[in-house]
Structures are given as structure tokens and as C-alpha cells.
């Protein structure tokens, strides 16, 4: 059995701006919901403890652990793990307070991450959140390319809020590589672009053993870059492929919806 204490004050939220939160497990985002409903969802096992949350006033997703303290009574019975097969699965529900089974990896389609996106900026936020959860990243940045240059639109990391809105030169080695559609993997021996990428991760407060950048090309033009870093050494090809599929799904939706 889980007991939950919510720590809204830890996020520096002014109560006057509303109790409106979004919760994401990396495949889907739910919200807006209030803190009480999130707490009930955690207690019921519907909201995974490794989820990320974002208040409506934030531009940065944060780990659920930053706003919730969860205690688990090991003596109490836990929610059963359901075997695969239609005869054993409970009825599906969108209610965050209703218990649900874990989602199997092959059931998560990359396009699902962007189903609720209203525009490109919204989709880029969901892309960053999904990528962080897919590869267990410790830091991430999204640069968006505007007519007047590139800037950091979203950030995940200890000092993420300090970097929001910071401009980045299109002559930056990472942006130069992205402009021609090249990806960067900064390990095991990063070159100039990899070093610049790792330096940005360090600005977020994370010394990364591995970092990578994937360009977001909409109609063959650079719309944004996704930069991801992790403390743990090594990145598997399957992890990169999973994030590449997310980027491809975003690009498909952006082109179909005329976002860029």
C-alpha cells in the first residue's frame, strides 16, 4: 500500500495561479489535473513513481519525486502484475485514479507521445520528456530554430530554468552539424561538436559520460535540435533508435499539420 505526501511548495508555485498539473509516463501526458488527483493516482498504482510532472506555469518537466514523497508498506498486498493476454487484462480506463497494468514496450507507439500536441513547441516539449524517460537521461535540451536564430526552448536538469531562452549561435558546432542533418554521439572520444554538447550538459549541472544530439528536420529544414545527456557511460544502438523513432514521429505530425 502506498501513502503519498504532496510537496507543491517545493516547486515554488504561487497558489493564486492555479492547481493545474500534467503527468507523463513517456508515452502519454495526462492533464491538467490537481495535486489531490495525482496523489490518488499514485496510491492506486496508476501513476508510475518514475513519471515526470509539469505545472502549467513551468516550461520544464521534473521528476515526480520532486513534488511527492511516497511511502510503501511492504507488509500490505501490492497490485498484481497482469500476465499478457486479453483474458487477464482489466478494463481500460482514462481515470488517473483507477489501477492499471504496466504498458508493454511494444504497445508504445512513438506517435502516441504527440497525440495531444497543439503545435510544434508543444510537441517538442513532449519529445524531450519522452526521450528522457526512454534512455533514463539526466539532462536534456531542446533548441528551437526561429527566423532570427536558435534558442533554448526547453531544458531538463538541475539548472534548466537558468538556460531557458538563452540564444545559441548557428555557428555553434552542434548547430552546424544539425543544419546539415547530422546527428552527434559524444562518446567515447568526443570531437569539437561532442565537446560543445557535453559542455552544455555541464551547464545543466550534469557531468555526462554520454551525450547525443538529434536534429529535427521538418520539410528538410532544421526546426529544432534534441540534446540528451546521461551520467552512466555507454549508449546502446537500441536506445538511439528509440529516440530517432520519436523524432521521426514528431516530424511526420509536424509536416502533416503544417506546423513549420
Total domain modules: 2
Strand count, sense and barrel status of the largest sheet are: 6 strands, antiparallel
**Low-confidence parts lasting 5 or more residues at pLDDT below 50?**
75-94, 97-106
Structural class: alpha+beta
Tell me how many strands there are: 12
Numbering strands along the chain, what is their spatial order in the largest sheet? Answer: 9-8-7-12-11-10
Q: Return the string of H and E elements.
A: EEEHEEEHEEHEHEHEEH
Number of separate helices: 6
CATH architecture field of the largest domain: 2-Layer Sandwich
CATH class of the largest domain: Alpha Beta
Strand percentage, roughly? Answer: 15-25%
Q: pLDDT average, as an integer?
A: 80
Terminal Cα span: 47 Å
In the CATH hierarchy, the third-tier topology of the largest domain is known as Beta-Lactamase
CATH superfamily (homologous) name of the largest domain: GAF domain
Give the fraction of residues assigned to helices.
Answer: 25-40%
Shape: globular
Amino acid at each position: 500500500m502506498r501513502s503519498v505526501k504532496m510537496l507543491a511548495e517545493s516547486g515554488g508555485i504561487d497558489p493564486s495561479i492555479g492547481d493545474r498539473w500534467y503527468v507523463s509516463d513517456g508515452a502519454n501526458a495526462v492533464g491538467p489535473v490537481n495535486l489531490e488527483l495525482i496523489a490518488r493516482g499514485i496510491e492506486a498504482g496508476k501513476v508510475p513513481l518514475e513519471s515526470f510532472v509539469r505545472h502549467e506555469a513551468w516550461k520544464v518537466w521534473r521528476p515526480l519525486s520532486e513534488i511527492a514523497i511516497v511511502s510503501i508498506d511492504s507488509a500490505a498486498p501490492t497490485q498484481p502484475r497482469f500476465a499478457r493476454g486479453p483474458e487477464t487484462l482489466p478494463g481500460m480506463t482514462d481515470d488517473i485514479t483507477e489501477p492499471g497494468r504496466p504498458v508493454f514496450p511494444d504497445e508504445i507507439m512513438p506517435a502516441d507521445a504527440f497525440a495531444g500536441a497543439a503545435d510544434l513547441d508543444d510537441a517538442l516539449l513532449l519529445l524531450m520528456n519522452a526521450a528522457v524517460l526512454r534512455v533514463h537521461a539526466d539532462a536534456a535540451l531542446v533548441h528551437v530554430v526561429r527566423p532570427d536564430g536558435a534558442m533554448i526552448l526547453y531544458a531538463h536538469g538541475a539548472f534548466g530554468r537558468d538556460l531557458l531562452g538563452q540564444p545559441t549561435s548557428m555557428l555553434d558546432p552542434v548547430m552546424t552539424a544539425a543544419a546539415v542533418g547530422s546527428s552527434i554521439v559524444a562518446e567515447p572520444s568526443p570531437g569539437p561538436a561532442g565537446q560543445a554538447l557535453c559542455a552544455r550538459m555541464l551547464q545543466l549541472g550534469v557531468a555526462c559520460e554520454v551525450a547525443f544530439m538529434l536534429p529535427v528536420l521538418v520539410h528538410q529544414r532544421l526546426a529544432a535540435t534534441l540534446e540528451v545527456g546521461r551520467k552512466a557511460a555507454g549508449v546502446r544502438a537500441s536506445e538511439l533508435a528509440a529516440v530517432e523513432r520519436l523524432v521521426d514521429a514528431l516530424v511526420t505530425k509536424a509536416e502533416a499539420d503544417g506546423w513549420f
